[in-house]
From TrEMBL:
CDD domains: GFAT, SIS_GlmS_GlmD_1, SIS_GlmS_GlmD_2. It holds the Pfam family GATase_6. SUPFAM superfamilies: N-terminal nucleophile aminohydrolases (Ntn hydrolases), SIS domain. HAMAP family: GlmS (MF_00164). Its main location: cytoplasm. This is Glutamine--fructose-6-phosphate aminotransferase [isomerizing].
Length: 603
């Protein structure tokens, strides 16, 4: 979703902003813009619809300065257009603002304060820059006008504001949307994601909700809501520029699929000891062991991982687990058990839908754990505990390695809790060994890339729709496999419980409809095969992905056996490659699918 960058105190502000915006491209956006000033007091505002490359083509050599802000916009209020792209300016052009988030009371603000202002576009951000101007016109200094505006605004925001009359300062504030200050020796930067500014610094300072920051080239001043100065230590980002480069890969998604065996080995290193036992903070284990029900709350791929996690957690811990969509849970909270424990799954740790649930569970004083890939992310900071996924930065919008990392970390957690409770199913489970087998099997499947590419051509080259079917964990994998296929190849795909098809959905099967059957569970294999026969009789073009011990010679893809609880970690791999090749063959951008954002920071 929207991204923010800013720089103060460097000669080549324009290049730094553009490079920063390029690093934020993966988050998803439809337009972009920069404002640069400082040098010779000349101001430059450049905006463009489309990609950063389009913006770049509009930036002439005169666009130079020592201070600037930049933005990638993912449209919420007002369609994608140059007019609606940020930065936005006030009527007298004095104030320039970029914003991530959603201003909920923008209509009210318009009515109450901006009756006589001429607005250019339809965005909620434009309201804010005019509101600041309004307070400045009433005699307030810029800082006061900005702070006053913050008291009027309701909603989520990360703001960066420049006053052209004082280009030695960037004013920054945040509430619910991510924003960081990066520290340099003679300069400072701002960014909604550390990746954007890694080329400049790897020392960052977090900003808390409600704080306002004055950013100058040689210092930063953080003020809390009451105006008190706050001192906060910086931290060193555990990221390397090479982590976020694609190297020789044509797309990040392919690199991230290939990364998965390494991620499994990293999880073994991080979360198991030399004798192979799970190593998780005792406080987390104590809280879960003392709970009577686990609630997993997540969105999209993380939600799908939650279902697989439920199967593993219940087997090992004997504690009932419910899995919920964040966007539903928050506003339709089910009746909770007496001693609930919440697990938030989020690759980015910034998903607004999940965060609104966490805010509520915190208000209720309920214990929570976030599993995330991003240290210091909002969900990580606001939950009681965090377990990192250690998957390395995931750049492609389509999540792959975060999904398998979530399942693997949940499996380690389940093992640690199960062992603590003395459960036999857990004590018998050698997690380090089983995950190392998984890593090796993942490699075997990934080596079959070209076979999968050919099969994709045979099955998906012309189809408009497709089905993934399975039972139990194979159904959960089907849900994720179909999400992957639809979000990047735009093939309408459904992940369905194999036995449920005949209760209605089988009506959609036509001559040639591709149906992918996933078979990794001995107790349901025969039934799923039966369901595949039913669709075949109605014209379906069946594609079977089966575990070796359950496979038939006619199956299209056969996967080596792994521990029965962990089969989703390997059965998902061919489906990720199927989505990748289907997209490639259709000529779409694999990493940046239409309408989607990597980090969904609005509800
Ligand atoms: O960062 P999160 O895991 O909280 O994100 C949740 C979803 O937005 C995300 O998984 C989305 O579904 C991906 N595009 C799936 O590939």
């Amino acid at each position: 979703m929207c991204g923010i960058v800013g720089i103060i105190g460097k000669e080549n502000a324009t290049d730094i902003l553009v490079q920063g915006l390029e690093k934020l491209e993966y988050r998803g956006y439809d337009s972009a813009g920069i404002f640069v000033t400082g040098k010779n007091k000349e101001d430059h505002l450049v905006k463009s619809l489309g990609r950063i490359a389009d913006l770049q083509s509009k930036i002439s050599s005169e666009v130079q300065g020592t201070v600037g802000i930049g933005h990638t916009r993912w449209a919420t209020h007002g369609k994608p257009s140059e007019r609606n792209a940020h930065p936005h300016t006030s009527s007298n052009q004095q104030f320039i603002l970029v914003h991530n988030g959603v201003i909920e009371n923008f209509e009210e603000i318009k009515q109450e304060f901006l009756q006589n202002k001429q607005l250019e576009g339809e965005t909620d951000t434009e309201i804010v820059v005019h509101l600041i101007e309004c307070f400045a016109e009433a005699g307030m200094a810029t800082k006061e006008a900005f702070k006053k505006a913050l008291t009027v605004i309701k909603g989520s925001y990360a703001f960066a504001l420049i006053d052209k009359n004082d280009p030695d300062t960037i004013y920054v504030a945040k509430n619910k949307s991510p924003l960081l200050i990066g520290l340099g020796d003679t300069f400072n930067v701002i960014c909604s994601d550390a990746m954007a500014m890694l080329a400049e610094t790897n020392h960052f300072v977090e900003i808390a909700d409600g704080e306002m920051v004055i950013v100058k080239a040689d210092k930063i001043e953080i003020e809390d809501e009451k105006g008190n100065l706050v001192y906060r230590e910086s931290y060193e980002a555990q990221l390397d520029l090479s982590d976020i480069e694609k190297g020789t890969y044509p797309y990040y998604m392919l690199k991230e699929i290939d990364d998965q065996p390494t991620v499994m080995r990293r999880i073994i290193q991080e979360y198991t000891n030399t004798v192979g036992d799970a190593v998780i903070d005792d406080k987390i284990i104590g809280k879960i062991t003392g709970s009577d029900r686990i609630y997993v709350v997540a969105c999209g791929t993380s939600y799908n991982a939650g279902w697989v996690g439920k199967a593993i957690l219940e087997k090992m811990t004997k504690i009932p687990v419910e899995v919920h969509l964040s966007s539903e849970f928050g506003y339709n909270m089910p009746l909770l058990s007496e001693k609930p424990f919440f697990i938030f799954l989020s690759q980015s740790g910034e998903t607004a839908d999940s965060r609104q649930v966490l805010v509520q569970t915190n208000e209720l004083g309920l214990p929570s754990l976030t599993l995330t890939n991003v240290a210091g992310s909002t969900l990580s900071r606001e939950a009681d505990y965090t377990l990192l996924l250690h998957a390395g930065p995931e750049i492609a919008v389509a999540s792959t390695k975060a999904y398998t990392a979530q399942i693997a970390v949940l499996a380690v957690l389940a093992k640690a809790v199960g062992d603590k409770k003395g459960n036999q199913s857990s004590l018998e489970f050698d997690i380090a060994h089983e995950l190392s087998v998984i890593a090796a099997v993942m490699e075997t499947i990934i080596d079959e890339k070209m076979v999968i590419s050919q099969l994709v051509e045979d099955y998906l080259s012309t189809t408009r729709n497709a089905f993934y079917i399975g039972r139990g964990v194979d159904y959960y994998v089907s849900m994720e496999a179909s999400l992957k296929l639809k979000e990047i190849s735009y093939i309408q795909a459904e992940g369905f419980a194999a036995g449920e098809l005949k209760h209605g959905t089988i009506a959609l099967i036509e001559d040639g409809t591709p149906v992918f059957g996933i078979i990794t569970d001995q107790k349901t294999a025969a039934h799923t095969r039966g369901n595949l026969k039913e669709v075949e009789s109605r014209g379906a073009h069946n594609f079977v992905i089966a575990l070796a011990s359950l496979a038939k010679e006619t199956d299209q893809l056969i996967i080596p056996d792994v521990h029965p609880l962990l089969t989703p970690l390997v059965s998902i791999i061919p489906t990720q490659l199927i989505a990748y090749f289907a997209t490639l063959q259709r000529g779409y951008d694999v990493d940046k699918p239409r309408n989607l954002a990597k980090s969904v920071t609005v509800e």
